[in-house]
Amino acid sequence: MQIAQILSGYSLGEADLLRRAMGKKIASEMEAQRVRFVDGAVERGVKKGEANVIFDLLAKFANYGFNKSHAAAYALVSYQTAYLRCNYPVEFLAGSMQLDLGNTDKLSIFYQDADNQEITVVPPSVQTSGVGFEVSEGKILYALAAIKGVGEGAVEQIVSERRENGDYKSIEDFFSRINIRQVNKRTLENLICAGAFDCFDYARERMLAGLERLVAHASRTAQDRETGQNDMFGEASGGEATKIEMPFCEAWSASEKLNREFGAVGFYLSAHPLDEYRDMLTKMRVQLYAEFETSVRNGATAGRLAGTITGKQERKTRQGKAMGIIMISDPSGQYEAVIFEESLLRFRDDLQVGQSVILLVGADMRPEGVSVRINSVESLERAASREQRDLTIFLRDQSPVKNLSPLLAKRGNSRVSFVIVQQNGAREVEVQLKERYSVSSQIQSAMKAVPGVLDVELV
To answer: What is the pTM of this model?
Structure first.
């Protein structure tokens, strides 16, 4: 294009038409451009024969010059990207996550990459997070706007209020200061489930159960501000925000808490449902998917995996038979597997979203990547119940026992002991139950959530 401008007096627009004609290689257009190019060059003192030779050289270069120039540009971008990734890994990942703010599949990959590099990603919090992804003290602060169903306008109001007027002192203070017209109920529910309100030291289920009270408080406070009414003893006069009692309700199990978090974030962020089973899975020689994928690339064709079902689709094959496409998550990332009619019908009950399972799989290496095929499925909970593990429950007194008893309804092969901790830990009294029971990591988590329980060990 520059040659055409200098030698033949092309304008930028004309030079771009020449570029297009050479790229498309349309004979009639090329001939018209040749006439224009040669005439312009002759007017500027270039011999007609030389002008034709130069035009032929340009046409020949067009066959490969376009690819070559793009390759050079991409090479430069690749070099710059590699430099940033190696020298500023935290900032690079935060920038990458910001670029894909609304794509939870990409965010999950970046989060896993951060974990592999031992880069801390701080979970979302209305007290510390920004609207987008930010870096602070070598850590990535998870973006409030990356939570599902949370608009940027809503979290901009939350973040700007905090930065202009200081941290939120309590959940009541938060709801006294936000504009409830901008932050709707759906947004608040997802912020709670994602853990963005954990900083206020209430269980997520209690905050969700008390959300109507909190929203009503926010509406009353906003109305009072608009009408100029001040609460003589409340926050409007500079005092503490009115205390709001959160209702007591049944505690979420660890798996329910994580599944709700998954629904709000798009992947497991604070922990993974398989974390509680990690020692058992290691003993059973169950692989993480990342390890299995490497094995398949090295020639393996089968393996044993564990995962939590995050999605499920059923469809028909070309032969009209049923098949399932199962989305699965484990601590190393997310993957997809297919299951065909016979196995699908046999194991359908275990393939429910939120269920954790052990899978026997086959695998093939295909051009698009590793293809996983499910051959058999077993509930992880059932597999865990076969393991002989002992349960020890630590209490301050016997008051929680009545709430723990229903969790020990099923007989099994595990010993269960209660340990009463007295005198600030100086004295312990242990009572072992005569019968043996079926215990699991889920039962352990449910017991930990019972008020009055100090700790529960499953070994």
So the answer is: 0.73
